[in-house]
Design a protein that fits this description.
By secondary structure, the protein is α/β, with parallel strands linked by helices. The protein has a single domain, classed as TIM Barrel (Alpha-Beta Barrel), CATH 3.20.20.70. The protein is 43% helix and 16% strand. The chain has 12 helices and 8 strands. An 8-stranded parallel β-barrel has the order 1-2-3-4-5-6-7-8, surrounded by 5 helices. α2 links the parallel β2 and β3. α5 crosses α7 and α7 crosses α9. The longest helix is centred in the C-terminal third of the chain and has 18 residues. The model has no long low-confidence stretch (mean pLDDT 97). The structure holds phosphoenolpyruvate.
Amino acid sequence: MRRRVIAGNWKMYKTIADTRAFFAAFSPMVADANYCDIVVAPPFPSIAAAVESTRNTKISIAGQNVYWEKEGAFTGEVSPAMLKQAGCRYVIIGHSERRQIFGETDEMVAKKTKAALAAGLTPIVCVGETLAEREAGHTERVCEAQLSNGPGALTAEEFSRILMAYEPVWAIGTGRTATPEIAAASHRYLRQCVARRFSPELAATLRILYGGSVKPDNIQGLMAQEELDGALVGGASLDAKSFASIVSGAM
Ligand code: PEP
């Protein structure tokens, strides 16, 4: 049985004060949610406030991005060890906004994932096709390439320590969720790729989150698919009540 994970990606939203206010409201709402792991990824400057606000809770904090070098002249970047020391347990890698706006490649995703693992972080590696790719019938080809050129470069032992997120780009921030069946088909395909690349055992234990316009009113339908091991939530994770209701929907 794979334990579910509900992760919130705040993107470039929430100041330190907003972060404290969010957790003051959110933490009590999910205090009894022992059935899943809860992760929140604030922007870098709000990580310390998030870690402090969640100290006596089961909520874990994630970075939204990381660089692969330990230190150096890399203006604007942060290292895995810096995130770890700041109190992060997870890090999102290869989000479609990183790929599309900042030119991140599968090879960069592979390097970031390896470095994050070496520092003791749990990477949440994102893959997913654009609308044009889906309409051209290339969904499987794109997901397979992102998987094999990204986390496919890991050793089996390293791969056993990552989470993946299937996030169709056309569903992110658009209000257009993949149907539970569409999401499940992609998750099943990714699992087949993992079985081929690594082993059926790793494929069976890998947790794959679905991301793309997950809301309180569609989480239960999505979670009814046994292929889906949780959700990566953008917009709806910014409001404490709405995110808590998504956590409840993962029960
Ligand atoms: C995301 O940012 O990963 C995401 C899925 O966003 P949204 O839930 O807003 O579509």
